[in-house]
Amino acid sequence: MLVQSAKATLAATGAWLLATLVLRLPQPFLAPYAAVFLVEATVYRSLRGWVQQVGSVATGVLLAALAGQLIPWQAVALAVVVFAGLLAGSWWRFGESGVWVGVTGMLVVSYGTAAEPVLLGDRLLETALGAAIGVAVNTLIFPPLYGERLVTAAGRLATALADLLEATSDLVRHDEPDGVDSLLSRTNDVRSQVLAAEDAAGLTREGRRLNLRRGRPGAGARHERPLRTLIALWSPLSQLVAAVRTTSERQEHPFAYPWPDARDALADLMHCLAGAVQSVAAVGEPVELDGCRALLHRLEQRLVTAEDDGVPARLGLGAMILPARLLVEKLEDR
Length: 334
Known about the structure:
Elements: H1 2-22, H2 30-37, H3 43-70, H4 74-89, H5 99-110, H6 117-140, H7 147-174, H8 179-208, H9 221-249, H10 260-280, H11 290-305, H12 311-332
Helix pairs in contact: 1-2, 1-6, 2-6, 3-4, 3-5, 3-6, 4-5, 7-8, 7-9, 7-10, 8-9, 9-12, 10-11, 10-12, 11-12
């Protein structure tokens, strides 16, 4: 944030000096304004914003010029330009810059330059100049990368997933009623961490587009795949937690808890999965899954041979084995 603020200051100052001292434009207020707004969070956004910004400002200036030629009363011209500019700015191709169609037109009419073609040309020139300087500064001087966000997001998500698996393991092993509320709280925490991880991954990918520093370690390419794996674990884990909550909250439900030996094996499997999930976030470290595979195989064999143990218990065990297998498969495909 400090670097981007310094860059925006540099861009605004440079745009103002170039417009006043070199081009000698009168009242070049749009140059530093455009420069500041084009120092975006990513290089790609700056380049896209340059097109949108210049387009929206040019449209606002043209609207003001048209109103200045056709409407002799400044107040009426101002109202017409603002109304028409806000409508035109809602076009989706203008993006977030669309609001400046009406605002730019309002500024031009307010300054009384709407009827002077030379000054209108100056407005367009200074806007394009300021926007170009903003893009250049953001592209050439420490173009922003967000690889460190992937590292942070992966670490936090791995910890949240592992904690949820450990809490689920304890609930399965000990069947404590108070553990259900804790499980729900941890589930909500994981959901929020998944959303944060998806945002970090999207921003990091966008940050590398058209970025001169995209090949550097700080670009986060090494951590992108582990983070995708962790995000993919959320769906089967949420299914597993839902099955456990159902069996623990409603004992009269057909999905009853499985037999004691199977419950212990399930708890051990979840504990083993928690350790594997933590290893995913450590890039370059091996993820040990042999223990998880052995426990999963043991549980599946228990389900196949449990013909005389009753339908409710078999259903309960099956409901937990399926998402557990999906978790193992996601970890194997990392």
